[in-house]
Amino acid sequence: MSTLLKTEENPSANLTTEITLTFDELVQWLQSHTSPPSIEDISERLAKVHIASSDLEPFLGFKEGNYWRHRVCRNESVEMLIICWRPGQKTPIHDHNGSHGVVRVQEGLMWETMFTYNDEQGLCYKSGRECPTGEVTGAAEPDIHQLGNPDVSGQDLITVHIYAPPLGVLKTYKVGSANVDLYTPNDFPTD
Predict the structure, then answer these.
(1) 12: domain range?
(2) What's the total number of domains in the chain?
(3) Which of 45, 69, 84, 104 is the most buried (most CB within 10 A)?
(4) Close Cβ partners of 105 (under 8 Å, ≥ 6 residues apart)
(5) Do the beta carbons of residue 151 and residue 112 sit within 8 Å?
(6) For the purposes of burial, counting CB atoms within 10 Å of the CB of 44, is it exposed (0-12), middle (13-18) or buried (19 or more)?
(7) How far is CA 82 from CA 56, 102, 159, 176, in A?
(8) Residue 19: pLDDT band by 50, 70, 90 thresholds?
């Protein structure tokens, strides 16, 4: 089950009281880790960081057909990605297979669909929700979910993802099926 960590209708409204670090400071904090930070620590920092358009500029790029992953940093303990989505693009239904993840909706509207799995019925729909700009949401193990930019959004979506430890081989699922497949995210997402 995904956990709503913070919602801000207007993330720039309280910059002076809520922002405690810059984008570069967040990256430095992540790179300093020699063991995976907790989902709570990641969530707190991702909710409080100020991310300017200029911070994201080197990591932005969209493509047709599928969302595009852009790596900001990665070490043995943690990784940070910027993901760019056109309307209608979505992940496979997946879990994080041992990693926890936190996502911040930087710009646009993200749709999150949660699922449950049991050996008898296979994968079953659980719930879905919209995550607007500024929202921070986290997924601990054994969450099974799908993220995406709804077709009807009419706008691009930019999200900031932090995984600890870095994503490895993920399990992917299909509704109504007990089959579980394996998927390895591209280690060089901007190539």
Answers:
(1) 2-183
(2) 1
(3) 104
(4) 131, 132, 133, 134, 135, 136, 157, 158, 159
(5) no
(6) middle
(7) 8, 12, 6, 31
(8) low
Q: Would the pLDDT of 18 be above 70?
A: no
Q: What is the SS3 string spanning 6-66?
A: ECCCCCCCCHHHHCCEEHHHHHHHHHCCCCCCCHHHHHHHHHHEECCHHHHHHHCCCCCCC
Can you give the length of the chain in residues?
Answer: 191
- Please check whether residue 188 lies inside any domain of the structure: no
Structure-token pair, residue 18: 């809520």
- Summarize pLDDT for 54-72 with one digit per residue, the tens: 999 999 999 998 999 999 9
Cβ(103)–Cβ(123) below 8 Å: no
pLDDT tens-digit readout, 92-123: 999 998 899 999 999 999 999 999 988 888 89
- CA 189 to CA 83: how far, in whole Å? 10
CATH number at 179 reads 2.60.120.10
Dihedral angle sign, alpha carbons of residues 80, 167, 90, 145: negative
